[in-house]
Amino acid sequence: MDNFLALTKLITPASLVALFPLLGFFVTSLFGKSLKHASGWIASGMILLSFICSLFLFLNLPTGASLNFNLLEWMKWGNITLSFGILIDPLSLVMLLVITGIGFLIHLYSIGYMHHDEGFSRFFAYLNLFIFFMLILVLGNSYLVMFIGWEGVGLCSYLLIGFWFKNDAYNDAAKKAFIMNRIGDLGFLLGIFFMLFYFGGLDFLTVNEAIKAYPINNIIIVAVTLLLFVGAMGKSAQIPLYTWLPDAMAGPTPVSALIHAATMVTAGIYMICRSNLLFAMAPHTLEVVMWVGVATSIFAAIIGIKQNDIKKVLAYSTVSQLGLMFAALGMGAFESGMFHVVTHAFFKALLFLGAGSVIHAMGGEQDVRQMGGLWKYIRITSMTFLIGTIAISGIPPLAGFFSKDEILAAAYNSHKEVWVLLSISSMITAFYMFRVFFLTFSNSFRGTEEQKHHIHESPWTMTVPLSILAILAAIAGFWGLPAVTGQTHLFSAYLKPVFEGSKAILGEAHEADHATELMLMGIAVLAAAISFGVAWKFYISSKIVPEPDSETKGFAKWVANKFYIDELYDNVIVKPMMVISDILFVLIDKLVVDLVVMATAWIVGFTGRTLRLVQTGNAGFYLFAMVIGMMILMFIQLVY
Amino acid sequence: MNLPIEQTNPQNWYLVLSTILFSIGVMGVLMRRNALIILMCIELMLNSVNLLLVSFSAYAGNTEGQVFVFFIMVVAAAEVAVGLALLVSIYRNIGTTDIDILSKLKW
User: Fold this and answer.
1) Is the pLDDT assigned to residue A72 strictly greater than 50?
2) In terms of Cα–Cα distance, which of A256, A242, A221, A267 is closest to A98?
3) What mean pLDDT is predicted for residues A518-527?
4) Contact A279, A225 (CB under 8 A)
5) What does the pLDDT look like over A574-589, one tens digit per residue?
6) Is A619 in CB contact (< 8 Å) with chain B?
7) A77 by DSSP, 3-state: which?
8) Does the structure show a pLDDT above 50 at A20?
9) C-beta atoms of A617 and B100 within 8 A
10) For the residues of A108-136, what is the DSSP string, one character each?
11) Of B26, B29, B103, the CB nearest to A618
12) Is the full-model pTM beyond 0.95?
């Protein structure tokens, strides 16, 4: 009863949390012109209010309880009712805090970063709209509501990638992201239709109830989960739909940090965690999820080695880390996957914002070959970037170590071969991250004199978010201490109620003994240390600077060109599609549609040309025709 | 109080008369070239119809037809005013009202 009272008190903040960003969107988009730079502060304030709401919910939600209520009944036919409702449980709360918390910091950062941009208000309107849709995605209590948010964030991603719409290449990148996402969305949508047909409803409770009647690995459940996973592949940039994410770096850097690193791309992981019961019923799908994740993780990490654009490296690193999370989900380690989502959100947002600060200092330069020695000039950025790099490389005691270690341990306990592959992938990650760090911040400056003169530390609106994120990236790991320390894993304890059902099906993962655990940690740390050493050797001791693109040869050239996957897609899918379009253009458009349209126009024209000859201008003739006409009418009247 | 009006002449006579008047009007419209005359012929046609209406009104013993005639007369007066004004204006500009010459409005 107390729980019930406590929950009813939460309904208002739960309904409000998503409304603030929407309000902010309307204000900044409608009055952006007159608000000028105030719109940035308004937008940030709205997100801060959302964050406070989320925090309130987090602190007041009774342990083990969840709040699930419908705001309105949306569609109803037969015995199926689709309603628009909100679900607050530990899983959505974690996402809420990440989205609004990091969202607020990135809003604040953008005030400084976008200060000179003419589309300042538009930028914040889009950002607020994005946060709104992301909150809808996370808050929804049914797949349908989640799908609304899912599509909405896709739209905002498109708008923000193509934010500088005067550049054709950026627009192409935006379109690419949108179309790639559409392919995934189609899978998601088909999954929704399947669920509606077989399970008779779309809200999580109905679905979770309905699947109890099915046996494990039932073909319907496997089909539904695979379709949902296709959706996740698109949104979370997994092979084969990952190519849009690196291109999405065309957007302003805060966008890359918020949407393409911290929040939107983790929507796929959130979705699978949300449907964990469904996926647990389909071990076949989990197998697929795991292998796709592993493949993406290692593939993207390899590409990351040879990228010279600071944001591209981070983009491939994001793809790789997302692969790691999917691998965790595939092994049934849902809470480890979610834990990595959170820590990754911190350090990847930090790295992107740091990169943004570097780009800001360099006056728009993104090529690491033109940087170097920035440590001296922009100390705060360098320090925070270093913390991010260490965190992502998995060096204790920073956040990345704990979450990555958990995934690796889960892999070791269930699939040894996956553990090997993931270890290699995280070793490569450590290498290319230190590579970028050394190339950017150490040695001497390699850019032009003009750039050197321009270098300056960013304003406080940018450095404060950087510092906060750096602290979070450093300490977030302590939320999930490994068992060997004898402490409770606070994070999985918090999320436990969400994953209880699937754990019952999959069986509790058998814990490795402490010696093995320590050994695994040792290997992970050793691997990261080796990567660090190699990177140090190459880029500090030998002062190697990556060669210009034209001099890259052999395998390195393949890697630098991303294994020509884009070209492959272009030749296999895009170009045939263009040819088919051309053929259809001639056959259908020219021969059928145009023929009908042109014939209609010609008939009208011909009739007009012929009949106008009657218009002689002679009034006597008109009168005569009129009288004759009237006589004919009268005659008809008489006869009939 | 509406008393039925006694009709002294047979209804047929009125029918014949208004038919003759209407036909004269039509023939005038068709055969004359002067716009003024054509306008007058149109008036003639209108008034033949008026005559018919009044006679039928008396024949049927109600006054509605007569009321209707008043309306027609009012509208006809307005129409004539507009028509004559146009004709005067045309005559001032072109110097004629012959409809064979006024044939500029064509394809």
Assistant:
1) yes
2) A267
3) 87
4) yes
5) 899 999 999 999 999 8
6) yes
7) strand
8) yes
9) no
10) HHHHHHTTT-TTHHHHHHHHHHHHHHHHH
11) B103
12) no
In one-letter notation, the amino acid at residue A265 is V
Beta bridge mates, A309: A367
Residue in chain A lying closest to B101 (CA): A618
> What is the H or E stretch that residue A587 is in?
none
Q: Is B105 on the interface with A (CB under 8 A)?
A: yes
Question: Which residues in chain B are closer than 8 Å to A627, comparing Cβ atoms?
Answer: 26, 29-30
- Domains and their CATH numbers in chain B: 11-94 (1.10.287.3510)
pLDDT confidence of residue A1: 47
Q: Which residues of B touch A619 (CB under 8 A)?
A: 35, 99, 102-103
* Residues B35-58 as b or e (16 or more Cβ within 10 Å = b): beebbbbbbbbbbbbbbbbbbbbb
The radius of gyration computed from the CA coordinates of chain A, to the nearest angstrom, equals 29
pLDDT in tens, B13-68: 999 999 999 999 999 998 888 999 999 999 999 999 999 999 988 888 888 888 99
In this complex, the residue of B26, B99, B107 whose CB is nearest that of residue A619 is B99
Shortest Cα distance, chain A CAs vs residue B105, angstroms:
5
Sorted by sequence, the CB contacts under 8 Å of residue A544 that are 6+ apart come out as A538
The number of beta carbons lying within 10 Å of the beta carbon of residue B61 is 12
Contacts made by residues A557-563, CB under 8 angstroms, sequence distance 24+: A559/A302, A559/A303, A559/A305, A559/A306, A560/A306, A560/A307, A560/A308, A562/A243, A562/A246, A562/A303, A563/A299, A563/A303
- Which of A612, A615, A624 is nearest residue B30 as measured by Cβ atoms? A624
The owner of tokens 């406080």 is A460
Decide if B105 and A617 are in contact by the 8 Å CB cutoff. Answer: yes
